[in-house]
Specification:
Strands 1-3-4-6-7-8-9-12-13-16-17-18-19-21 form a 14-stranded antiparallel β-barrel. Strand 1 and strand 2 form a beta hairpin. The protein is mostly beta strands. It is built from 4 helices and 21 strands. This is Long-chain fatty acid transport protein. Belongs to the OmpP1/FadL family.
Length: about 400
């Protein structure tokens, strides 16, 4: 029994990378229009599709922005009627990008984003404390890129992705009356992206893009036990004098396919739509290799393998923009985002819901400068939690909202 509980506690801490959710907050202007992608007005298009850089109307474009993301999860045990609410700090995703045309048909650029991550905090004594008490998950994407304009109406672009990741996770180990912390701030991985951007008519933009999965490799993560009988536990699990063991794992982040379109109904009014397909199904299992701790489930007792049972998911987006004047723009949008797992595979560390989101915002232009503000309100659908593998049952609900401020500069 002790072996099973310890395995669950350690595994949960690392699953955040594999089971973490995609954060759709890489452009303030885009968020206001349901986070649609076929907008080549400035360098913010670089993350969504590097090919779009060729259609930016200026030779040099620079953008930067940030968001506040607030969410609350409520879990209720339907047998005891005990209800638990998270006390999550405000999440702060950020982004920045630059695009430059050294010659007429060639554009180069760089994008920095935080496309995966979460921060969640439950009460220390809640019923799922052996799964999670507190989690901080961060990822950083660094993407140099290039775009070639193949014709007046067509461009191709590609990017290289270097990713850095961090996880810091606390949970209880009740059989030893203590806690375990899972920590790794040196995980890294590589990937790529490419896309085509079309403008067959001045009124129509079409974006087709692919972003590869990124295998985040944790080569020297640390599991630290803090328990009253420290020496006993150290000997039982093969920990060092500080109550620590190391682990290695390959932790994949999701791939994404996107098709987007923007149509100018009138010179002042445009409509945008996107379809995203996320390849979550590759998370069929996760393997962790500990240096000494015999908590595995394979022939080698230090190797722990857990089934994931994730499935591919889709997102549908629709947004619009109206130019009130040459300086002021109004934006609205809505989208539906599918959860990548069923009720039977719900995990409280990275809770996910089928979610409807409404968005809106304003844009202001003053010559080369632009200022954008946006907000979003999420309406996650409640879930009947039935995870028999974790012995976790009940009902989960959530609420969330986002706001953002973005700046842009199209120099010349």
């Amino acid at each position: 029994m002790k072996k099973i509980l310890i395995s669950t506690a350690l595994l949960a801490g690392v699953l955040s990378y594999a089971g973490g959710f995609r954060v759709s907050l890489q452009g303030v202007k885009q968020l206001a229009m349901a986070h649609t992608s076929a907008h080549a007005e400035d360098a913010s298009v670089a993350f969504f599709n590097p090919a779009g850089m060729s259609f930016i109307p200026s030779k040099l474009s620079i953008v930067a922005g940030g968001f506040g993301a607030s969410n609350k999860i409520t879990f209720q045990n339907l047998n005891t009627l005990t209800s638990t609410e998270t006390d999550n700090p405000l999440g702060t995703p950020i982004y920045a990008a630059i695009a430059y045309k050294p010659i007429k048909n060639l554009s180069v650029g760089f994008s920095f984003t935080t496309p995966f991550g979460s921060t969640i905090q439950y009460p220390n004594d809640w019923e799922g404390k052996e799964l999670v008490q507190k989690l901080e998950l961060k990822s950083f994407y660094f993407q140099p890129m290039v775009s070639v304009k193949m014709a007046d109406w067509l461009s191709f672009g590609a990017s290289y992705i270097y990713a850095k990741g961090k996880v810091d996770w606390d949970k209880a180990v009740t059989q030893f009356s203590g806690t375990v912390n899972i920590n790794d701030d040196e995980a890294s991985g590589h990937g790529y992206g490419f896309g085509f951007y079309f403008r067959p008519d001045p009124k129509l933009d079409v974006s087709i893009a692919y972003r590869s999965p990124v295998d985040m490799k944790a080569k020297n993560g640390t599991a630290t036990f803090r328990v009253p009988a420290q020496n006993t536990v150290n000997g039982l699990l093969g920990l060092n004098a500080a109550g620590q063991d190391s682990f290695t794992a390959t932790l994949p982040l999701v791939e994404e396919y996107t098709i987007g379109m923007t149509y100018k109904v009138t010179p002042k009014w445009l409509i945008s739509a996107d379809f995203n397909y996320h390849g979550w199904q590759r998370y069929s299992k996760l393997t962790l290799d500990f240096a000494n701790a015999p908590i595995g489930n394979q022939a080698d007792p230090t190797i722990l393998v857990s089934p994931k049972n994730f499935r591919n998911a889709k997102t549908f987006r629709l947004g619009t923009q109206y130019a009130f004047t040459n300086m002021i723009y109004g934006r609205l949008g809505a989208y539906y985002d599918e959860s990548p797992y069923s009720d039977e595979n719900f995990i409280p560390e990275t809770p996910s819901f089928n979610t409807y989101v409404v968005t809106g915002g304003l844009g202001f232009k003053l010559k080369q400068f632009g200022v954008d503000v946006a907000g979003g309100y999420a309406m996650p659908q409640s879930r009947d939690v039935k995870n028999s593998n974790l012995g976790f049952y009940g009902q989960a609900k959530a609420q969330a909202f986002y706001f953002g401020l973005g700046l842009s500069y199209n120099a010349f």
